């Protein structure tokens, strides 16, 4: 049904009702590669790219496909993870975000634009459960349900050595030491292992004291200690050089400890649990420093301190992200809502004013961490940054009016039972979002959604009441 020459005139591409694409040598008439198969309908049109490296085709099955002209492999454009996002982390300078997913891939994103910076890192044969950058940002470590740990060059995406093998079950948590020379890992096999980051060799026998799955491990800021949290409801602190226990187990949670981490100065430890509480501990004595922080209504999968140690961010099965004052234990604002499934990973950007979160809803979101005014300013700046990268106009809800800008938070209210209506402070209905867009709405104070198309709420030119006629007139023009 369609034929065309390559740019240099040496080859011909053809598309057929037999659902295949074929490439032929002009001089000999021979096929130069096996048929391209993937379409499930008649191929109506085919053509080479200007450089001759790719072929584009469209079919009666309503799809457009792009192919590598030399390998017959389909070229898939960069897109979101195709399954749950299980772990995320910022690069040390805050420029990039790394994410690991149940789709067995690792992706690196530009933290300002949301664009992928390279092809997905692939090699794991199971879900990627934990990822993190090295302190200098040159490498990424990942742990997987395939029982292995892998180290990647963050610039090229290449693995720098063979997989680290030693655990006999899922590797739930991995991380570099502050100097980048070692890696710690925790596993469902109830052990903690410490590895030489340059050679991939274990530097001591596995640490064995926990009696159940180890969900979270991490180094202290000075690299001398390791903290771990387990399904045995305890938190343990270890000497990173000798593997010896530093204190008695920290006990207080009534269910699995899913996430642990040191404060930036190493004085405190924060822990999140499936008992729906967050606890803060004195890292030197093992004593709790305040009552449990309560507010989440589901498992708390991820907790961490802000870079200055003054705040704590948490992510939960209740689909919310919460920010707490680390000194008083009080929440500093309403829960950040927008994810439509469990929030499994959260973290602060080094600038302290942004938070990133990853969820089972297959999306990554970036939030403002301060007051409403600063968040709205960030939203405006981020929207301006995002505009050039091609979010289609039908994903933006925008009306036209000369009215002055009204801060979004002063008239938009997100209700827990969101049914598609954007509502005002008194619950009045303002406008309605199509159901297929509900999971894509960038709610304040979220300033960026990585993964799927966005629905951006832009009140800069919002009209209502009798002013609506102006919008109607604009469209009529």
| CATH topological fold name of the largest domain | Methylamine Dehydrogenase, Chain H
Number of domains: 3
The number of helices is 2
Structural class: mainly beta
Helix content, binned percent: under 10%
Would you identify the CATH architecture of the largest domain?
7 Propeller
Strand proportion = 35-45%
| Major sheet | 4 strands, antiparallel
Give the overall silhouette: globular
User: Rounded to an integer, what's the Rg over CA atoms?
Assistant: 26 Å
Termini, distance in Å? 41 Å
- Would you tell me the overall average pLDDT? 81
Largest sheet, spatial ordering of strands? 1-2-3-4
Q: Can you tell me the residue ranges where pLDDT is under 50 for at least 5 consecutive residues?
A: 371-417, 473-477
What is the number of E strands? 39
Quick gist of this model?
This protein has 477 residues and is mostly beta strands. The chain has 3 domains: 2-68, Thrombin, subunit H (Beta Barrel), CATH 2.40.10; 85-373, Methylamine Dehydrogenase, Chain H (7 Propeller); 375-476, no CATH class.
Describe the 3D structure:
The longest helix has 15 residues, at 372-386. A hairpin with a 5-residue loop joins strand 12 (128-133) and strand 13. The protein has 3 domains: 2-68, Thrombin, subunit H (Beta Barrel); 85-373, Methylamine Dehydrogenase, Chain H (7 Propeller); 375-476, no CATH class. The protein is built from 2 helices and 39 strands. It starts with a strand and ends with a helix. The strands form 11 sheets. It has a 4-stranded antiparallel β-sheet with strand order 1-2-3-4, with no helix packed on it. Strands 8-9-10-11 form a 4-stranded antiparallel β-sheet, with no helix packed on it. With 477 residues, it is mainly beta.
């Amino acid at each position: 049904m369609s034929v065309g020459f390559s740019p240099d005139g040496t080859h011909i591409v053809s598309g057929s009702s037999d659902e295949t694409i074929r490439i032929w040598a002009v001089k000999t008439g021979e096929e130069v590669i096996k048929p391209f198969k993937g379409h499930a309908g008649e191929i109506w049109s085919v053509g080479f790219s200007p450089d001759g490296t790719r072929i584009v085709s469209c079919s009666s099955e309503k799809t457009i496909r792009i192919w590598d002209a030399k390998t017959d492999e389909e070229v898939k454009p960069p897109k979101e993870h195709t399954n749950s996002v299980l772990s995320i982390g910022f690069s040390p300078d805050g420029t990039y975000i790394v994410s690991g997913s149940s789709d067995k891939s690792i992706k690196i994103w530009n933290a300002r634009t949301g664009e992928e910076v390279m092809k997905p890192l692939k090699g794991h044969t199971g879900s990627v459960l934990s990822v993190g950058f090295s302190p200098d940002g040159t490498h990424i470590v990942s742990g997987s349900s395939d029982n292995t740990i892998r180290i990647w060059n963050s610039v090229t995406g290449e693995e720098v050595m063979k997989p680290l093998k030693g655990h006999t079950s899922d590797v739930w948590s991995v991380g570099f030491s502050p100097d980048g020379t070692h890696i710690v890992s925790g596993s469902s096999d109830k052990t903690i292992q410490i590895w030489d980051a340059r050679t991939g060799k274990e530097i001591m026998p596995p640490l064995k004291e926990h009696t159940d799955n180890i969900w979270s491990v991490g180094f202290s800021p000075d690299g001398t200690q390791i903290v771990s949290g387990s399904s045995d409801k305890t938190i343990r602190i270890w000497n990173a050089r000798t593997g010896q226990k530093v204190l008695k187990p920290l006990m207080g949670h009534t269910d699995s400890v899913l996430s642990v981490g040191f404060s930036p100065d190493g004085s405190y430890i924060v822990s999140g649990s499936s008992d729906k509480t967050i606890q803060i501990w004195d890292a030197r004595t093992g004593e709790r420093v305040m009552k449990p922080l309560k507010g989440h209504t589901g498992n708390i999968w991820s907790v961490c301190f802000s870079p200055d140690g003054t705040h704590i961010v948490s992510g939960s099965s209740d689909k919310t992200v919460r920010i707490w004052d680390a000194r008083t234990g009080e929440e500093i604002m309403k829960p950040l809502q927008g994810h439509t499934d469990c929030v499994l990973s959260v973290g602060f950007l080094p600038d302290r004013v942004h938070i990133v979160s990853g969820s089972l809803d297959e999306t990554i979101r970036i939030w403002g961490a301060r007051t409403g005014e600063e968040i709205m300013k960030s939203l405006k700046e981020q929207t301006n940054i995002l505009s050039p990268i091609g979010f289609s106009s039908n994903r933006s809800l925008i009306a036209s009016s000369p009215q002055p800008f009204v801060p979004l938070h002063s008239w938009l209210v997100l209700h827990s039972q969101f049914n598609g209506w954007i509502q005002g402070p008194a619950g009045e209905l303002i406008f309605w979002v199509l159901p297929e867009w509900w999971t894509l709405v960038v709610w304040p104070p979220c300033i960026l959604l990585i993964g799927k198309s966005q629905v951006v709420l832009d009140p800069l030119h919002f009209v209502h009441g009798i002013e609506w006629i102006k919008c109607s007139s604009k469209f009529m023009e």
